[in-house]
Sequence to fold (286 residues):
Amino acid sequence: MAITSLSNDQVDSYRREGYLLLPEFFGADEMAAVDGAIREVSEAALASGDWSDVLELEPELQDGRPVPRRIYEPHNRHETFRRLGSDARLLDCLEPLIGPNIAAQYSKINMKPARVGSVVKWHQDMAYFPSTNDDQVAVLIYVDDATEENGCLQVLPRHHTHFFDHTGADGQFAGMVTEDLSDGRFGQPVSLAGPSGSVILLHCITPHASLPNRSEHPRRTLIYGYQAADCYPIYFGEMTSYGMTGQVLRGRPSRFARFGGPPPLIPHYEGMWKSLYQLQEEAKVE
Fold:
């Protein structure tokens, strides 16, 4: 572990670009423990015969067997994930970005198995959970080496101060940006490749995506959402049923909500809760 806090230059870069990559933040032993916990949780859920509350599976089989593409709320599944999510080194890096009072928001593990990893289309996280302010950071931890070939994260820098449209042709929340980002008007995507143990600090409005994994190597990412303690949800609907823990990890809870940032979009959606993958796969886009 090489970093315990952020330099002024790193903070300035995050505020300007909307993200920050910290290569090899965690060591090999820590990632080995995460690997073991992922396997333990996944195997137990699959063996139970009813994994729907724990896992989401890839639509394609791998070698004839079902393969998980997401673990829901891993902090509720294993002590390894609880311990890492409250690690002082992470909180030290978050403090200059969102302040001294830091609350947990959500956790998940996105997995791109070799040869079958699902694509994730462009989206902005806060479109899923409108809140009183945008002092929210997703911490993405690469469990495996992440490359363009196995679907590392892509970001669109300097677009974390406004929202793109996430509405489908039917007027419903599509779970993805429905404007055309491919013609260069908004700049070029940046691929954030990094070795195992690398950490990405991602602003909650930074557009991001990832390509499918067509390599022979898996790409698993452990993700924690954090927010300032005075950031409160203003929307409780189908899209927020998986998160919003609100547990204060450092500092004090806030009695008052603080308002700031761009006016948040409110997703219009009718139906049962669906994951990001399902929403994007089923979206009706012109």
In short: The CA atoms of residues 91 and 250 lie 8 Å apart. The helical segments are 8-17, 28-48, 79-85, 88-98, 276-282.
